[in-house]
TrEMBL record:
Pfam annotation, one family: Msy1
Stated name of the protein: EF-hand domain-containing protein
Organism whose genome encodes this protein: Exophiala bonariae
Location within or outside the cell: Membrane
Keyword Disulfide bond: no
Keywords: Calcium, Membrane, Transmembrane, Transmembrane helix
Residues passing through the membrane, by range: 81-103, 109-128, 135-155, 167-188, 434-456
Domain EF-hand: 378-413
Length: 755
């Protein structure tokens, strides 16, 4: 690829946003805080003794420089003279045996009149020339960087490209040397060769092979350089700034964790749970934390883990003495931080431990003077640099949730970069395979053209047939070209990015050469889209955006005055500038009047600016919901009504009904009194409600007695009219009078209606 520093190879787990339960850790370090001598107003946790401090170096690399023993071993193993002697001499001695034999004892043995001593001398020289070509190819990047760097420092990075194609370049240089040393073949019979050169077929064929190899190796070298240029340009554009920022932040976390260990030792009671999660690389402690009722079981497993860590550390220290690398020491600060960042629980515990050790009595945030006190006199610039790495939104302080969110985001970014680099590496390999097939076909054509006159004579016909057959797979070639441009040239997203396409939200899961896999945010469904199709779409990358703003549009009453809008803006500015909200929103609020809406309403737009992008969906929903509630409360407070107007004020003569808020106990007492009155009214009804069991109620049993009597009168009038028509007026009067003599609640016989 483009070098070892082009990609960070890290394997981490998915990180969720920090929970609000972390707030309980904000003051959990109060038991371990103490005031520093000579400082009556201490604002930080216990200071490090000056004798225990070491010089703070921001540019210090993760791997220490080699020790003298390691340097000596490295020089022995990396000595090119010794290494090349081991490679060249044994094989050269074996190849010298036939050369000596054909030059002395078997000098009369010939092939078509030519002595074989020249051939084996040529083979011996070509074996040595192979390693000479290797040395020349290894020196080309250094020479390129030295001379071309004088013209422009920006092209020095392409020395890595030349270093990556060292083997194809060595083969190309070797073929050139083979052509230069070819006269050695006929050196022993030079006179005979010049006289019979047209009839010595094996020398002619050997010359053709060498010339064809020069062209073929040049084609292969060009293809490999093209692949490396694509890789170098891609990684320098996409990952260079991200990797640099992540390395700086991880370095700051290393220094903070080291200082926290000096203030509160490892496995102390104040940070026992955090230390368990930090060192729990196998996730066993996390399971025990959920299942065990006390800490005894966890402590036993943790002690076993520490014992194994110390045992491995003994071997690590021995290896570190030879190589000078801290990575081999599992108890080194960076090794612990690197292992903790690979897990969600470890990253959150690391952030909590650092925050606990850096906060003092009653403090809920880390401020710059805390770091200045912790790192001591003379490290003000370094402390300011570390605080700048922590305070990404410029609030002037860092809370517990912000610390946890920062560390977990670094862990997630490391994983996303590793995934994206791995996917692009696979895509480059796929492109390399496709081009290698094309190069192989071209190489076959080159060799065939040197050995077959038919191919040379009919080359135009072959090219015409190949062009004609291209129409059958022209669409595939077009899709392939569009996909390559989309992935390597445009590259609108990386793995883990939040994007919007066609008013839908997606998260990038995998990037391949011909397709990309997304995850839908609304349904968690997996979507696979061709890269050629993506090249024609408008893509909004949320993760690459800086601090984003949001707009809310709504309509209000046309009678709203400008003064009310100004009061609304003031209320919203007070909300976003409050200490509990200043970490989420910027202090500017814009209110715009868009239109009059046919003189029936006023269309308003409120614009608010967040302090980060919307890549974190949970954080976005939380901030949006909080602001919308504040917006509704502010509009009611001003007040500002909807398009239909607010109506008269409650409690006035136009709206005498009004609502009074009650506490829970008073509301329960009033409800109980209401239920009691309801039951008493039900028992005083004149008409009892019959017990119908599980039958469906007709609704008549809940009517008052007056309504029931009115219903009887209506039914009697209808039935009486029918009886009058059948039996005459007199009979109707008798029955009607008997009906009217019924007392309330007395049941009328059903036979009366049937007459």
């Amino acid at each position: 690829m483009a070098g070892r520093d082009a990609i960070i190879y890290i394997n981490t787990t998915d990180i969720d946003p920090p929970s609000s339960n972390n707030e309980k850790y904000a003051t959990s370090a109060t038991r371990s805080s103490r005031q520093s001598p000579g400082s009556p107003d201490t604002v930080c946790s216990p200071l490090i003794h000056p004798s225990q401090r070491r010089p703070l170096s921001i540019s210090e690399d993760y791997e220490d420089r080699l020790t003298p023993t390691g340097k000596a071993l490295y020089k022995v193993l990396e000595n090119p003279v010794l290494r090349y002697c081991i490679y060249i001499l044994p094989v050269g001695a074996i190849l010298a045996i036939p050369l000596i034999l054909f030059a002395t004892k078997y000098s009369d043995v010939t092939a078509e009149g030519m002595s074989l001593a020249g051939l084996f001398a040529y083979i011996e020289i070509m074996w040595v020339s192979l390693w000479m070509a290797k040395l020349v190819a290894a020196a080309v990047p250094a020479l390129f960087q030295a001379f071309c760097g004088i013209i422009s420092t920006g092209i020095r990075k392409y020395a890595k490209v030349l270093r990556a194609v060292e083997i194809p370049m060595s083969i190309f240089i070797w073929t050139l040397m083979a052509l230069c040393w070819f006269p050695i073949v006929h050196h022993f019979d030079d006179v005979f060769y010049h006289r019979e050169r047209q009839s010595i077929q094996w020398i002619i064929n050997l010359n053709k092979v060498i010339r064809a190899s020069i062209g073929s190796s040049a084609i292969v070298l060009g293809e490999k350089i093209l692949m490396q240029l694509i890789s170098a340009n891609y990684h320098s554009q996409q990952f260079r700034d991200k990797i640099k920022d992540i390395k700086a932040t991880v370095r700051a976390i290393d220094l903070l964790y080291e200082s926290s260990l000096r203030q509160i030792p490892d496995r102390s009671e104040e940070t026992l749970d955090e230390d368990y999660d930090i060192h729990d690389t196998t996730n066993v402690q996390h399971l025990l934390k959920e299942n065990a009722a006390d800490r005894s079981t966890r402590r036993i497993f943790m002690n076993l883990h520490y014992f194994g860590q110390k045992l491995v550390s003994a071997l690590g220290y021995m290896a570190s003495d030879l190589t000078g690398s801290q990575i081999l020491r599992p108890t080194a600060t960076h090794a612990i931080v690197d292992a903790a960042l690979e897990r969600k629980a470890g990253a959150e515990a690391l952030a909590r431990r650092i925050f606990i050790c850096l906060t003092a009595e009653g403090r809920k945030a880390i401020c710059p003077n805390v770091l200045a006190e912790v790192f001591g006199f003379g490290s003000e610039k370094e402390a300011a640099w570390i605080f700048a790495q922590l305070d990404r939104d410029g609030n002037g302080s860092v809370s517990m949730d912000e610390m946890v969110m920062l560390v977990t985001s670094i862990s997630r970014q490391r994983k996303d970069i590793w995934k994206s680099a791995s996917n692009i590496r696979d895509a480059i390999r796929t492109l390399d395979r496709v081009l290698s097939v094309i190069v192989l076909a071209v190489v076959i054509m080159v060799y065939t053209s040197f050995f077959s006159s038919f191919v040379v004579e009919n080359l135009k016909t072959i090219i015409t047939l190949a062009s004609a057959s291209a129409f059958s797979f022209g669409q595939t070639v077009g899709e392939f070209n569009a996909s390559c441009i989309q992935v390597f040239v445009k590259h609108p997203f990386d793995v883990g990015d939040r994007i919007n396409m066609k008013d839908q939200e997606f998260e990038v899961v995998r990037i391949s050469l011909l397709y990309t896999v997304f995850r839908r945010i609304d349904t968690d469904g997996v979507v696979q889209v061709s890269n050629s199709v993506l090249s024609t779409l408008f893509i909004d990358n949320i993760s690459r955006s800086k601090a984003m703003k949001e707009r809310y549009q709504f309509s209000v009453d046309p009678g709203t005055e400008f003064k009310a809008l100004e009061l609304l803006r003031i209320e919203l500015e007070e909300f976003v500038r409050a200490p509990e909200n200043s970490r989420d929103y910027q202090s500017d609020i814009d209110i715009q009047l868009l239109s009059l809406g046919d003189m029936k309403q006023l269309d308003l737009r409120i614009e608010i600016r967040h302090k980060s992008n919307w890549a974190d969906d949970r954080l976005k929903i939380y901030r949006r919901s909080k602001f919308m509630c504040a917006l509704l409360s502010a509009m009611r407070k001003v007040p500002i009504h909807g398009p239909d107007g607010g109506g008269p004020e409650q409690g006035t003569i136009d709206a005498p009904n009004y609502t009074v808020p009650l506490d829970r106990d008073t509301a329960a007492a009033i409800r109980a009194e209401w239920d009691l009155k309801k039951e008493s009214k039900k028992s005083q009804r004149e008409v009892p409600i019959p017990d119908r069991g599980d039958t469906v109620s007709s609704g008549l049993e809940i009517l008052p007695s007056l309504m029931r009597g009115f219903q009887y009168e209506q039914e009697g009038a209808i039935s009486g009219t029918a009886a009058y028509l059948r039996h005459g007026r007199r009979q109707f009067d008798d029955r009607s009078s008997s009906r009217l003599s019924l007392r309330p609640g007395q049941q009328r016989p059903m036979s009366w209606l049937s007459q």
